């Protein structure tokens, strides 16, 4: 049975698990399972937007830097460095004040912060690929830069970028949960797992399932992402290659 995530039923507050409410109700009588589902969708939206923005923007900057070289390359590297050192919490607070930290805005903010790492990664991978013997041979045989990029460079770079992006999904989920826990969301009543943990912490001893449900959901989501994406090793571009380029898989902490 579907439940309105905002429907308040004070007469049924803090009810235990039942057929109607499998995870019980919260302090306002709202169905906990329904709010968990809605919060999970918000987290998924944030993670996908953050990944798309970081890969798209950072990848474009890295590609231009690798191809341009010289002053342009140095300038874009410094820009990527500047973006990388921006504290997530400070940026989230500024976005929350200016626009409200909705899932969309949170995803954009996290994506912008993450773009610096992808700029460095793509720039190094493309520069390395351009020095490969078969790429040099293709250029010597008259292949245009666009042809060489499309046929030889991008297919070699994309798997490594994809594997690196996969590891960031869990980090984005964790960051957004932290933001909502600290009250940086646009709506304090929104069913985000972080805000649910914050709201339900007061009932941790009387109704432990209330706080355990979002905590367990968050932990399982991050664990599932890491387990699902950890085997994402592409022949010819293993994790060790990323490590040699100076990139380690980041944790969600």
Describe this entry's structure for a reader:
- With 253 residues, this protein is mostly helical.
- Helices cover 68% and strands 0% of the residues.
- Helix 1 runs antiparallel to helix 2 and helix 3 crosses helix 4.
- The relative contact order is 0.14.
Secondary structure blueprint with pairings:
Layout: H1 32-68, H2 70-84, H3 88-98, H4 103-130, H5 133-140, H6 145-181, H7 193-200, H8 208-229, H9 239-244
Give a nutshell description of this structure.
The chain has helices spanning 32-68, 70-84, 88-98, 103-130, 133-140, 145-181, 193-200, 208-229, 239-244.
Q: What is the C-alpha radius of gyration, as a whole number of Å?
A: 22 Å
Helix content: 55-70%
β-strand number: 0
Q: Return residue spans where pLDDT drops below 50 for at least 5 consecutive residues.
A: 233-253
What's the average pLDDT?
80
Distance between the termini: 35 Å
Biggest beta sheet attributes: none
Q: Oligomerization state of this entry? A: single chain
SSE-based structural type = mainly alpha
Shape: elongated
CATH topology: MetI-like fold
* CATH superfamily placement: MetI-like
Strand content: under 5%
Which second-level CATH architecture applies?
A: Orthogonal Bundle
Core attributes:
disordered C terminus; 68% helix; 9 helices; MetI-like fold; single chain; 253 residues; mainly alpha
